[in-house]
Amino acid sequence: MTHPSVIRPRDHAVFSPQKMGKSTIFESSRLLVGLNAFEPGQEHALHAHAGQDKVYQVVEGEGLFLLEGRELPMRAGDLLVAPENVAHGVRNSGTSRLLVLAILAPAPHK
Amino acid sequence: MTHPSVIRPRDHAVFSPQKMGKSTIFESSRLLVGLNAFEPGQEHALHAHAGQDKVYQVVEGEGLFLLEGRELPMRAGDLLVAPENVAHGVRNSGTSRLLVLAILAPAPHK
């Protein structure tokens, strides 16, 4: 997964009818670049990471991002940072698919 | 710089007539989320980072990204990963501004 070429995030999206789909674009011990794919109505419940910072970016669609007890509407191109220990989550409150880049540093331990 | 709110990367861009402009969106010891802003003709020369992985994403414009001796044309939304020790650079070969998210993990030492 060194990807020495151009990556179009949409090409890596995995949607699932059961729950949020996850896929990995790049992973090292330092960095995980993944995609979270939400059908309408799907969500990623509030959670937090000790010792890891996360960056979300909306690739397509729109949704509500939960951060520090607030609900923030976000659309394509918008970024959100969840520093370590800050609870965060995502809800696809719209009627179309929501695709989100989720970048985590360092990567989770295997 | 905890940014507990939605970030529109364009709002943080700093362009400079002299050379590539740099700005920081978020920084911790684990993660640096920055912007590299290129006027037409500006470039970031080939360089590499030991022990750090970088992700580029084009926010607006288009340019040539250098990676492992190759020149890769990229446009808005495209991602590129430069794992540690892999030489990389950027050249705005177009006629409009090029704005690039540059995410580095871990962040450089101060």
How does this model look, in words?
The structure is a homodimer of 110-residue chains. The two termini of chain A are 16 Å apart. Helices cover 0% and strands 50% of the residues of chain A. Chain A is built from no helices and 9 strands. In chain A, 39% of the residues are buried. With 110 residues, the first copy, chain A, is an all-beta fold.
Key descriptive features of the protein:
110 residues, 5-stranded antiparallel beta sheet, homodimer
Strand order of the largest sheet of chain A: 1-2-9-4-7
**What oligomeric state best describes the polypeptide chains here?**
homodimer
Largest sheet of chain A: 5 strands, antiparallel
What is the rounded Rg of chain A? 13 Å
Beta-strand level of the residues of chain A, as a percent range? Answer: over 45%
Helix content of chain A: under 10%
Please tally the β strands of chain A and state the result: 9
Helix count of chain A?
A: 0
Describe the structure concisely for a colleague.
2 copies of one chain form a homodimer. With 110 residues, the first copy, chain A, is mainly β. Chain A is built from no helices and 9 strands.
Describe the secondary-structure layout:
Two copies of one chain form a homodimer.
Chain A: E1 21-27, E2 32-38, E3 43-47, E4 53-60, E5 62-67, E6 70-75, E7 79-82, E8 88-91, E9 98-105
Antiparallel strand pairs in A: 1-2, 2-9, 3-8, 4-7, 4-9, 5-6, 5-8
